[in-house]
Amino acid sequence: MRRLARLATAAAVSGAVLATGASAPAIAQNGPYDAPPSFSAMVSDKLPAVVGILSTVNQPEIQTPGPQLPPGLEDFFGMPGPQTPPPGPMRGQGSGFIISADGFLVTNNHVVAGADEIEVVLEDERRLPAELIGTDPATDIALLKVDADGELPFVEWGASEALEIGDWVVAIGNPFGLGGTVTAGIVSARSRNIQSGPYDDFIQTDAAINRGNSGGPLFDENGDVVGVNTAIFSPTGGNIGIGFAVPSQVAAQIVADLRDDGQVERGWLGVQIQPVTEELAGALALEDTMGALVADVTAGSPAEEADLRPGDVIVGFDGEEVADPRELTFAVAEIDPDTEVSVTIVRHGERVEETVSVGLQPALGPAPMGEPGEEDTTGTPMLGLSVAPLDDQLRSRLAIEDDIEGVAVLQVQPRSPASEAGISQGDVILSASGTDIAGVGDLREAAGAAADEDRPLLLRLYRNGNYVFRAVTLDTEDDSDG
What we know:
alpha+beta; Thrombin, subunit H; Pdz3 Domain; seven-stranded antiparallel β-sheet; 14% helix
């Protein structure tokens, strides 16, 4: 997959430098569009509520360095991979902002992840020890608490959902440890999905955000917090005008949950889902690509209890239409656990209504990785791949669990139907056109039947601990092996 740039996060401490990245916006002369003459009044009012955060990890002799990036961000960072650090304390720095007079404050999870000690640096240079109330790695939000003599200055949440592309925004943070720095820009895009996690819904801005701004606030023109600065796209780790912030609509809800009991509760179905492509829609005899295709159902999950099955397409949830997997993910997460909701699915061309009792989202862990095989054994016609039944040796080599049944893909020909459909070496083919695959002969038979009926071959795969569907458009003019 081609990536335009690499993603970096930011972290720093607080001070009192005013910089706007470019010259201050001027009032448009003799035109219909006005910009504020200066952000100085708003900045002067809000800067005292922006803090620096210092985190310390007591480093043993061998351990991964901290603080760590949130899941999914590492590949974009544009920096060397983790190195084994020398023993001793490891210190990180970031930004944050106070949301209540009694000392609750918000930052990014990756700023404080794994920290043994957390210290907050106020704008007046006081340093206070901080207590970690709770974190939500899925959205990279953390809530801290400090105790101070008297009330602290604080900021209010704004309405990120009211932002429009082109609106002015102001970021305050601590890039490269230079102290409280202010930058201004506009909203470049809304609801960005940068593939860092299941709940991506970022505000994109060209306000300068650098390494040091992580956890700092993004303000609207009224001085309300509309985002939590989290990440940037950059080939070098520096600002190039593409920054991302968690919208206040998401962050405020997460913070409220953390403040309540230190954790975030989300609804859970227990399905692995994927988009419905044009090819999959054809293979499934669907009228369009709306919905989320169920690739697998977790054993003992609410989805299994509601009789959802691999191959179902979820097109409605809790009375609302489902356009794609992302929409379903957000809809399920917003439902309180133990709530019964309706789910509309398309199964074998028929619409079916099921009732599911939504569960509690468990912690997400990394999927096991397998190493692809090398040998070429038995070819299958028209697909352009070679497969072999799973035996003990092959299972060990590919790190395939004992309960997975099917045939392993050992080789995929370049520019073949299998390659074009996204099938990879190391995949395990579990079923074809709804029929379980126990051996090479089953796959040959299913491919032949699909070719005779002039339709794509729908394959269900097991890949690196996950389940996916692929639709293979067969090359009926070439029925040679391999």
